[in-house]
């Protein structure tokens, strides 16, 4: 059994680590100042400058197929990269990516949506969730009815990431109520100019505010159907499933940074005449964090490995997301506790992470939905106890 990274994986990981250390970490202080003044992201110019620099390093389109100019990296390598990027609280992603389901777009749609999205000229959002349909996505009621050659969309979507900034939305709407969402929903590409409106939703984490979207007789031509009429739910599930190993890897990165901060602070801060790290209470928090982090790391990489070997990755991804998102909550909490009052301030990234990571246990499938997947797989005999080695 070989738990080593390949030379290539190590090289790529180390290059990203160097990029984060040299280019991103030095921006943290300014970013935290910006957050204290009510900001939520890097200034656009700064973001563009960083993306251009990353592109010079060769980092652009991590998951994007080579024919679109991307790197088409294996999922394990992508996970290593996402973990490195997550070590800074500065919200930054490499450019050159688009929603996975856009690759199924026809040639004209690829020119209008996919390619400009990859190039960073357009920004899309994915709109499935509604006020009455979250975990139970099959309960959506947004309806698109035929009107001549067009479709008229009516309904409300909620908690849509990038929904207030996007210039187009991928909207999942019922097109055949009799068939229900599983066979009677369709995905549409809907430009903001078509007439939908958005309003941001204030949340606990201030960095990425989702939005609610309102569709009031929004007219969409027939050539804006993404994929097949009636195939929208399958596309939606493909969209939802793709990110679970990425979220898990991000949790690993955040937890690694928090544990590093906790260990450093425990070796510096003195109370009652000695370092706080000399107290067993602090040592146990560090030990538990290290152990849980290691377990999470392997679950996250295992899920990505399943993707790379073409196996059905849903079970491993559900385990990884369930465990990693809870693990990072505990590790951030302990790191914050070890920092005492300083941990609670906005001078350090800990309190921001404490709030922001909470959403990870909700979006792209709640904890309970992951548990549903896992128990259902076992109870139906789809998965054997013992995992890959069974
Ligand atoms: C920051 C953020 C960003 C988001 N971005 C997007 C986006 O870009 N696009 C998009 O479409 N959606 C997005 N969402 C929506 C997200 O996917 C939903 O919030 C999530 O699926 C849960 O749905 P809900 O909020 O309606 O909760 P509900 O489904 O109402 O669930 C409420 C509670 O009941 C539990 N529960 C539900 N059913 C069961 C069951 N059968 N057994 C046991 N427990 C159950 C849930 O786990 C949860 O704890 C985002 C949400 C957030 C918070």
From TrEMBL:
<dbReference type="GO" id="GO:0003995">
    <property type="term" value="F:acyl-CoA dehydrogenase activity"/>
</dbReference>
<keyword id="KW-0274">FAD</keyword>
<dbReference type="InterPro" id="IPR009075">
    <property type="entry name" value="AcylCo_DH/oxidase_C"/>
</dbReference>
<dbReference type="Pfam" id="PF00441">
    <property type="entry name" value="Acyl-CoA_dh_1"/>
</dbReference>
<dbReference type="Pfam" id="PF02771">
    <property type="entry name" value="Acyl-CoA_dh_N"/>
</dbReference>
<feature type="domain" description="Acyl-CoA dehydrogenase/oxidase C-terminal">
    <location>
        <begin position="230"/>
        <end position="378"/>
    </location>
</feature>
<dbReference type="GO" id="GO:0005737">
    <property type="term" value="C:cytoplasm"/>
</dbReference>
<dbReference type="InterPro" id="IPR009100">
    <property type="entry name" value="AcylCoA_DH/oxidase_NM_dom_sf"/>
</dbReference>
<dbReference type="InterPro" id="IPR050741">
    <property type="entry name" value="Acyl-CoA_dehydrogenase"/>
</dbReference>
<feature type="domain" description="Acyl-CoA oxidase/dehydrogenase middle">
    <location>
        <begin position="125"/>
        <end position="218"/>
    </location>
</feature>
<dbReference type="GO" id="GO:0050660">
    <property type="term" value="F:flavin adenine dinucleotide binding"/>
</dbReference>
<protein>
    <recommendedName>
        <fullName>Medium-chain specific acyl-CoA dehydrogenase, mitochondrial</fullName>
    </recommendedName>
</protein>
<dbReference type="GO" id="GO:0033539">
    <property type="term" value="P:fatty acid beta-oxidation using acyl-CoA dehydrogenase"/>
</dbReference>
<dbReference type="InterPro" id="IPR006089">
    <property type="entry name" value="Acyl-CoA_DH_CS"/>
</dbReference>
<dbReference type="InterPro" id="IPR036250">
    <property type="entry name" value="AcylCo_DH-like_C"/>
</dbReference>
<dbReference type="InterPro" id="IPR046373">
    <property type="entry name" value="Acyl-CoA_Oxase/DH_mid-dom_sf"/>
</dbReference>
<keyword id="KW-0560">Oxidoreductase</keyword>
<dbReference type="Pfam" id="PF02770">
    <property type="entry name" value="Acyl-CoA_dh_M"/>
</dbReference>
<dbReference type="InterPro" id="IPR013786">
    <property type="entry name" value="AcylCoA_DH/ox_N"/>
</dbReference>
<dbReference type="InterPro" id="IPR006091">
    <property type="entry name" value="Acyl-CoA_Oxase/DH_mid-dom"/>
</dbReference>
<dbReference type="InterPro" id="IPR037069">
    <property type="entry name" value="AcylCoA_DH/ox_N_sf"/>
</dbReference>
<comment type="similarity">
    <text>Belongs to the acyl-CoA dehydrogenase family.</text>
</comment>
<feature type="domain" description="Acyl-CoA dehydrogenase/oxidase N-terminal">
    <location>
        <begin position="6"/>
        <end position="121"/>
    </location>
</feature>
<keyword id="KW-0285">Flavoprotein</keyword>
């Amino acid at each position: 059994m070989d738990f080593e990274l390949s030379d290539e994986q190590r090289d790529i990981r180390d290059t990203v680590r160097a990029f984060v250390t040299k280019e991103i970490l030095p921006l943290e202080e300014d970013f935290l100042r910006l957050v204290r003044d009510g900001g939520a992201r890097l200034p656009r110019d700064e973001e563009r400058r960083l993306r251009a620099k990353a592109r010079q390093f060769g980092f652009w389109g991590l998951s994007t197929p080579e024919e679109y100019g991307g790197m088409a990296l294996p999922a394990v390598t992508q996970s290593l990269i996402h973990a490195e990027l997550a070590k800074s609280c500065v919200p930054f992603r490499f450019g050159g990516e688009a929603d996975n389901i856009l690759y199924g777009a026809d040639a004209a749609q690829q020119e209008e949506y996919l390619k400009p999205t990859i190039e960073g000229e357009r920004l899309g959002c994915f709109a499935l969730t509604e006020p009455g349909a979250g975990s139970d996505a099959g309960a959506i009621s947004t309806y698109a009815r035929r009107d001549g050659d067009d479709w008229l969309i009516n309904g409300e979507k909620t908690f849509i990431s990038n929904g207030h900034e996007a210039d187009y939305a991928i909207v999942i709407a019922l097109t055949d109520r009799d068939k229900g969402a599983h066979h009677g929903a369709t995905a549409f590409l809907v430009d903001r100019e078509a007439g939908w409106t958005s309003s941001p939703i204030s949340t606990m984490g201030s960095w990425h505010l989702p939005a609610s979207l309102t569709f009031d007789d929004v007219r969409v031509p027939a050539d804006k159907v993404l994929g097949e009429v009636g195939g929208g739910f399958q596309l939606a599930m493909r969209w939802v499933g793709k990110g679970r190993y990425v979220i898990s890897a991000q949790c690993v990165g955040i937890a690694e940074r928090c544990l590093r901060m906790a260990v450093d602070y425990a070796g510096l801060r003195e109370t009652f005449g000695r370092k706080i790290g000399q107290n067993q209470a602090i040592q146990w928090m560090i030990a538990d964090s290290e152990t849980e982090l290691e377990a999470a790391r392997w679950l996250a990489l295992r899920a990505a490995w399943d993707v790379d070997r073409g196996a059905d990755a849903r079970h491993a991804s559900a385990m990884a997301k369930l465990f990693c998102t809870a693990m990072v909550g505990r590790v951030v909490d302990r790191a914050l506790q070890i920092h005492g009052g300083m941990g609670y301030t906005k001078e350090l990234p800990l309190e921001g992470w404490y709030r922001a990571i909470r959403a990870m246990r909700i979006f792209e499938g709640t904890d309970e939905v992951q548990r549903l997947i896992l128990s259902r797989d076992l109870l139906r005999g789809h998965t054997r106890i013992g995992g890959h080695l069974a």
